[in-house]
Every structure is written in structure tokens, then in C-alpha cells.
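Hi there, hope your week has been kind to you so far. No rush at all, and the record is pasted right below.
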Amino acid sequence: MRHHRRAVACVLLLLCVSPLPAPARSRAGGRASPPPYKDPRLPVERRADDLVSRMTLEEKISQMMNAAPAIERLGVPAHDWWNEGLHGVARAGYATVFPQAVGLAATWNPELIERVADVVSTEARAKHHEAARRGERGRYRGLTFWSPNINIFRDPRWGRGQETFGEDPYLTSRIGVAYVRGLQGDDPRYLKVASTPKHYAVHSGPEPERHGFDARASERDLRETYLPAFRAAVVEGRAEGVMCAYNRTNGEPACANKKLFDILRREWRFGGHVVSDCGAVEDIWKHHRFAESEAEAAALAVKSGTDLTCGGEYRSLIQAVKDGLITEAEIDVAVKRLMRTRFRLGVFDPPGLVRYARTPFSANDSPAHRALSLAAARESIVLLKNEGNALPLPKSVKTLAVIGPNADAAGVLLGNYNGRPSKSVTPLQGIRAKLPRATQIIHAPGSTLAGEELTAVPDSALTTGGPGTRAGLRAEFFDNKELRGRPVVKRVDGRVDFDWETGRPAPQVGDDNFSARWTGRLVVPESGEYRLGAVADDGVRVYLDGRLLIDAWTDGARWSPPKTILKDVRLEAGRGYDVRFEYYDGAGPAVARLVWSFPRFAERLRAEAVEAARRADVAVVVLGLSPSLEGEEMPVKVEGFRGGDRTSLDLPKVQDDLLRAVHAAGKPVVLVMLSGSAVAVNWAAEHVPAIVEAWYPGQEGGAALADVLFGDYNPAGRLPVTFYRSAEQLPPFDDYRMRGRTYRYFEGDALYPFGHGLSYTIFRYSNPTVAPARVGRGERATVTVTVRNAGRRAGDEVVQLYVTRPGEAGARPLKELKDFRRVTLAPGESRRVEFVLTPDKLSAVDESGRGAVLPGGYEITVGPSSAGGRKTRLEVVGR
């Protein structure tokens, strides 16, 4: 694939260096030729210099904030630099949603990741040009994408670790470079989109303190752990942008950190632009107390190298110039970098010259893109345990219980920084679609995520009509706020449990100013007192048997966060109640949920799940975490969680209790985990025969999971993080020293090691060799090993190479991943897999931050995970 891309690039380069059509000659006595910045034949640096020279100081500064306005007199269109593409185009309506970044990392497949990022940038181009045709140039409609997140997931308590490619610098580097290349494209002249890796640097929580926290890292940890992925993204991937972080690093705010910028600009020769995280320039003076005023903080950030602020702080640069804190020439440097990026995106050139500008809107959310999302989800799934070949399950199973709060939760599929899929498949839906109609599937939530005594009314209690009709409610959507006229969409929804954020309920419905009505019958399993109601951010009404139960239809209601309204009702088991739920959305996010609670809430949910397990031949229990519990600086007040981070690695207690109760029913149990980070499922590891980690798997997650559970896909995902047994095994969360963290420095007993993942077949390793076995410090060696599929199914194996360097124990990593290869082998097939150990892969970093290849014996381990494999040795000689 790489050779093909290079060939294409060479052909395009020949075309692009051919003389472009000369600009139209000026008429005799007519208008002058266009200025240099409008001439596509000129280098972008000259064009940027010319354009900036024509701007006033005020105009220059206006372009240094993310919401850059148009400069009409110069033909500069408006552009908002804030766009997100972590695992699909985010917050811009319908888009293909791939597995969350940590799930992408679990594929250990950079070639696949580059294809994923290529699709993301294709959809970004499709959306941008469609929006531009409508005159929309606001946030999430641009071509500068603040992705990927290549921070090191050093501690599983960090809520944003789900956005990263895991805990290892080498794996993060390889996948990060692939993602950058996929986003930016292979055109030698124009960028497809501009990739902006983040958050530079040494940034990984705690979330509640991030605006004023000082991350202290030694020179060794800085160079050996925190910076390699950024260097790879900039030097190899040629990323166009970099985002600096909120926190301080070794005493200086990241967006005004002289040392970090010296490494970025001088050592790595990065010539692109740097953008601050949103509000990070304000943090320089407000929270870090590193400057006396906003003007001083803005001047300090620009002079250090932060060209663009996400926010409005750079308005104060006018005053900073007046006060002598910064010169206009220093501002010019930043603005030229920003204009260079926009020239590289082709926004000033005729669309005929920019092949990406011809991307049709139909390229968005295409069947091929959805198929790639399914493929990525399959490859990301990790089989953690499979005792007695409990998996795959037979499709002939007669009765199956699907239990757990994540079993039918569409929002859990998406992670954070996500797009909105036009369709998604939950685990329950995927299992239903996989099995014959004759199979009885019993669904029971069993619990809420963390013990909340309120949940969406499940489809098991809702029908579209009388007995025997379809589960769920009839839904009608209108393209106005008044439920007026004929509905533009009719469908059946299993339940009313929606959070459309910046998306829309269906392609025919607008992002805002729509309404919806759900109707059907409510049948409760047990007579008693219930609390029935709604969660909504705009107008809502609920009717029960024709009686208006909740009336909050006031125009402009707008509740943020969404408001919960409950009414006490007595309901009788077996009786059908007419239910009608009406909702309108004005502007912004759209949240609509039909919810209930009842006495002995947790006990009754659990009892229902246990009864389902008793009636079934096997129970699939879908547990884990949720983006509503872990994420970015969140107002979560739940035991085990703090501000988006976690204080415990355990399953929430209510879920652990549910799992034990279902297991006690005596039927075979399969545990499926949906999460963005490692969960310490210690009890399950001892008692449950099969455990699957599916991450936040994207829109096709349920279909991919069903393929794995029932044997239509042989799992081959590998852990990009260590699964610890307890947070007590780790140093304090706010300690950024690497000793004791990640597989590279952790000396304890892991629950599941980094790189771990099982298969439905068996792979054998043999004959590891190093040639030559003795090299000089500047020479390379080749490592080869034979891998054989000794089972009866075709499958993928991720062959991993680890190096243990000589040196003082404790001062060096225990071992380090230095290469890997995902290979597909037929039953009985053998393959000789080859790796090249270059000097940079053997280099060690000393306390001063300098790297060198040390003489001595190197232990080389090749195998299926960081915890084992076949060993050989390499001797490095020389002084």
C-alpha cells in the first residue's frame, strides 16, 4: 500500500510541478494582474508573506483566534479552526463513527488506521464544501482538525485516556503517524485536512486540576515517554499543526513553555502552526499566575510560539503592542504560519486545482465507510478470557439472555468527541440480527450504570399496540416545533432515550427546530407505585391514558443541563396504558428521554435480570463504563469517579453485584465490557469463563460484537493498556514519574498485561534468531521468528517484539515494545516474520535527556504479548 501511495504521489508531483496556467494578462489600460498571494504558481511561503503584508494589525490579530472572520477586501473567507475528528468527523451532523481512539489502538493495525483517517478526512471535505456552498463557515465546518490525541495514557484513572492510543510510546507513534497521514492525504501540493496532534505535552490528568496543574517530568521520562509520539507525528507524519496543553510542564505553562517550543521548533524543525487548548492562554495568567494580565499572557504565548488561541484572549494583543509587550513583526510570524496552513488547504485557489475540493457530499456516511467502521470494530475487540472454549456461542442456542445497562445503550457506542451516526447497532440489536427468528432473546437491563435510581423505560415495557405487536413506540418527526402538518419521518423506536447533541434524529429532520411524538402502550411487570416522567432540554409533554401527566411545553424552555420531571402514578401489572410523549427542540443539543423509577428499584431490576438468566441457556452480560462517567472535565458526582476521572478501577458496585447474581443463577455467562479504559474485573476473571473487551466500538459495535460472540469473526485485538488489579498498585495519580507505571515500569501482577489478547485458534512461535548476533553501536540487526497457526481456524496474530536494554535496574524500562506486525494465517500455515532493529530502537536516554546506544547484552523477546514469548540475545559492542 505504501509503495502504491508513493507511486501516486510521484505522478501527482510531476503534474503539479508542470507549469500552471498563467494568470490572465491585464488588459491594455485595464486592471492590474492579481497580487502574488492569489497566484497558485508561487510557493506558499511567498503567498503568505504577501497576504500578511496587506493586512492591518487589527486584521492580523483577528485571524489569530479560532473563529477567524472574513477579510472581504482581501478575499479572505471566514474560517473556524475548531474542528474535531478523533474517530470520525465530530459535532457536524451525520458522519461515520469509528471505534473510540483506544479501540482503534487495540487493532494494532496502522494500515487500517490510515484508511480510517482517510475516510474521516473525506467526510470532512464533503461536509466543508457542502457547508461553504450554503455560506456556513462556523465551528465544525472547517478543514483544520484537532486530532489525533497522542498523549500517553500513563494511568487508567484518566478519563480522557479513551481518546488516546494507549500507554506505549512506540505503539502510539506508529498509530499516530498513520492517523496524521490519513487525515492529511497524499497530494504533494495540497492538504486534505490539517491534522493537529494534541496536547503538547506531558498531559494526562487529573482533569479537575488541569488548568493550574504542574506536570513534573524528568528529562529521561520526557524524552523516553512523553515526547516520542509528538516527534514522530511532526517529523515522520509531517503534521501541519500542534495543540499545546492546559497544564504547566516543569514549571512553565505548556502554551508558553520555552523548553517545549525549543524542542518543537529547533530540534524537530516544525514549521507548522500551534494552537492553544481552549482557554489555555487565559490559564497562563488566571490559574498558573505566570503573567499579570491577559495582554501579558497573550504576548508571552505568541512570542513562545503559540500562533492561534482557541478563545478570544488574543484580542488583548492590540493593547500588548501598545504596551511594548510584543511587536507587530512578532505577530507577523504567527499570522504567516496560519496563512501558510490555509494556502496548503487550497482555500484561496480554484477548485479545479485542488482535487480534494471536488469531494461530493454523497461521500459522507457512505455504505463503504460504514463497512470500514464495522471492520475496525471487529479488529478492535479483545478476547481477554475464554476458559473451556466458552466462545464462540452456537447460533443454535434456543434462549439467550442479554443483560446489563450497556446492552442496549446506543450512546455508549460513541465515546466522546464523536460524530452522530445515521444508524447504530447496540449489542442487543447486533445479537438479535445475528440469530434466527426462532431464538428467544430476553433483554433485562439488570441495573443502571452506577446505581442511579432512574432509567429509560425499556422496550420490554413498551409496545406499538396490543399484545403481540412490536416492542417499542411509534415515532413521528416533524420539521417544525409545533408537531404541525405531516410527519417527515415515521419509524419505531425501541425506547425514547435520545441525546442528539449537534446531530439530528434522521436525515430528513433539521439539526434544530423540530418536534417529535412517540405513541404506544405501556405494560409494567409488577403492580405498584411508579415515578414516570421525562428528561428533556426543551419543551416536553407526557400523556398517560389520555391524561396530561407532564406539561412543560413553554416556548424557550431550554434547560442546561436537561431537566428531569417525574410524576407519581400507580400502575397495574398486565394492563396496557396508552402513552404519548411529545418533544420539541429549539436550538443546540436535543435531549429526550421517557424515564421511570419505582420502589425497590435496584432490587427489582436485578431480580428481573436473574430471572432472565434462569430462563436462558446462556447469559451475555454487557457491563462497563460510559462517556457519561469518564471523559473531559465532567461534573460527575458518583462513587468511584471524580470530575471525569476515576478514583477506582473497579466496576461500579451495582454492576458487580448484578454480575455475581446472574452468575449465581447457574447458567453459562459471557461478560462483555464496554469502556474507554482498563477495568479491574478481578472477580469475573476468576469466575466467568469468557470475557470480551469491546471499548466504545463505534456505530457498528453491536454487529461486530455479535460476529465475535457467534464465531463469524475470529478476534485478534490486543490491549494497548495494562489492566491492573487495583488502583492501589499504582503511584499517586498526580505523580508524572513513570516508575511503577505501564508495562514498561510496572513490577506487580497485572490482571491482563499490555499486548494481551486471545484467539479462537492457537499460534505457536519457534526459531527466533538475530543476525548478526553482534553489532556495533551504529549498526542494525534483523530479528526473525516463525509463527504457525496450529489450530483449525484462520486468524490474525499480532507478533510483538520487545527489547530489554542493559543498564541499571529501575533506571531503565523493564522492556519496551520496538516493533509489531499483524499477520493473517490459515490453519496449519507458517510464516517467517522479520523485524529490523535500528540504532534508534536500541537507544537509551540518560538522566540529562541525551540518547545513545549502550554497549552490552540486549534481551529480545518475540511473542503474543508483553508477558511472554520466545527470547534471544543481541550483543552491542563499542565504546
Observations:
- The chain has a mean pLDDT of 93.
- The chain is about 25% helix and 25% strand.
- Residues 755 and 866 are 6 Å apart (CA to CA).
- The radius of gyration is 28 Å.
